[in-house]
Amino acid sequence: MQTTVKLYDLGYAESKTWLAATIFIVGNIALPQLFHLIPQGGVTWLPIYFFTLVGAYKYGWKVGLLTALASPIVNSLMFGMPAFGSLPAILLKSVLLAIAAGYTAHRWRKVSLPLILIVVLSYQITGTLGEWIIKGNFYNAIQDFRIGMPGMLFQIFGGYLFIKYLIHK
Q1: For residues 2 and 113, what is the distance between their CA atoms, to the nearest angstrom?
Q2: Distances (CA, A) of 138 to 34, 66, 93, 96, 129
Q3: pLDDT for 16-57, tens place per residue?
Q4: What total number of domains does the chain contain?
Q5: Which residue, 88, 75, 100, is CA-closest to 134?
Q6: Can you tell me the distance from the alpha carbon of 57 to that of 38, in angstroms, rounded to the nearest whole number?
Q7: What is the pTM of this model?
Q8: What sign has the CA pseudo-torsion 30, 36, 37, 38?
Q9: CATH number of the domain where residue 59 is located
């Protein structure tokens, strides 16, 4: 199932870029706080990535990149989550997600479940390899695949529905 929606490719000189990024950053701050009320909610549901995916897919990689960089850092400084030691891997995955989502939306100019699936798998697989290099521990690097499958499914189905129905204009 695919649907054509209005997708943007905003530049850094546009105020809409900064406004959209701010909204998605706030979302990426609030959503993890909700999921952290559930035991293991952060590592299971991967909420820090959700609005990076949505922002980059809908408004372009630049909005996604701003969201990807600011969200984990602000969350870590304000709430201690993610832990400082986890920031490099989370930032890597966030940046990869912003690039993958922005590129995919720009290239195909539509939203579909298979495209969102490809975005999520591409950033997770590449990010896991990078995390393995950063941490030097394969078991820890595959944590998102061991524990975070519900979060990846949430990104795929929730991201698709959010883009298609909630911000389709």
Answers
A1: 7
A2: 29, 29, 16, 19, 8
A3: 999 999 999 999 999 999 999 999 999 999 999 999 999 999
A4: 1
A5: 88
A6: 28
A7: 0.95
A8: positive
A9: 1.10.1760.20
